[in-house]
Amino acid sequence: MNRLLGLCIVVSFCSIAKPPDERPYDFDWHSAADMSGAFFMCSLYGFREGDCDEILEKCMTDPKLLKFKTFGVESKCLDLYAFATDDKDAEGAIEYASDETGVEVTEEQVNNYSKANNYEQDSSGQASRESYIDTKYYRAEEAAAELVIRDYEYFYYYGDGNGNGGWGHADYGREEFNTNVYSGISPDAAYDKEYNRMLNMGGCQNSINNKCHGYEKMAHESAEQAKSVAIEQRDKSYNDWRESQAWGQYGYKQESFENTYNKDRLTAYYNAYLEQLPSCGGNDECAKSRAWDSIKSMPLGG
After folding, report:
1. Residues 257 and 236 sit within 8 Å (Cβ to Cβ)
2. Distance from C-alpha of 301 to C-alpha of 270, rounded to nearest angstrom
3. Neighbouring residues of 295: CB distance < 8 A, sequence distance ≥ 6
4. What is the residue extent of each domain of the chain?
5. What residues contact 94, with CB distance under 8 A and at least 6 apart?
6. For position 217, what pLDDT does the model report?
7. CA-to-CA distance for 40 and 33, rounded, in angstroms?
8. Is the pLDDT at 130 greater than 90, yes or no?
9. Of all helices (H) and strands (E), which one includes residue 269?
10. For position 206, what pLDDT does the model report?
11. Against a cut of 0.90, is the pTM above it?
């Protein structure tokens, strides 16, 4: 781990690692606190120094360091509070690293620590994802977040195939509306009413003659028009009714959907995207498509 120890001088990993113990300056690749500190310090240099490329990869691929949530993927390495320390601990760590490596601490290196120690955290206590915005991991996170949105949209409009969701479908609730809600005349009743009215006008309700054959044709045409009007009126009433229903608004039960979302599906998609991106030549849509194909049989709910 000599490379990491040397890097302590440059970016002060040791000063923001786990709480002091019998070996306070040993860097632990399996410690969320140590990885969090290393991740943050590397972010100051765009993950271009020393072991930073390995740290970024581990933070963004190790299942023990990842949290899969309904908004996407989040690395535990982003948690700044995991490695919070004070100036005294940091000075001791810098001195220790200098003694171990035989490298004199420069003013620039001290300033580097100061930059980290004075880093302004946001209210969530997390480092900025913008620090690795140009990497494949950022793109994978974005793709995973889009997946959950895409899956809810599909669930809302088409359902899950098991009778759940589908509220946004054009005909959702139509049968219930036609049977139990709509109070206007039905299309079939409108047809019969107009057909009989036309026959009565010609005095052909109970007659069969050449004259009435003509009226029957006219009655049929007029009745079809009346039926079409009745359909339009009922459709308008249905659309007005569905807009007044809670399920008629996009976003209905979205929170419930997200709370029961299948995290295994999200995990598999994230990993598949990272796996497919190189073979796709870095093409985002290609990687998304292949990742989608790999999970399309997995259920939406957990």
Report:
1. no
2. 17
3. 265, 268, 269, 272
4. 1-128, 135-168+251-302, 174-249
5. 8, 9, 12, 14, 15, 105, 109, 110, 113
6. 85
7. 11
8. no
9. helix 263-279
10. 65
11. no
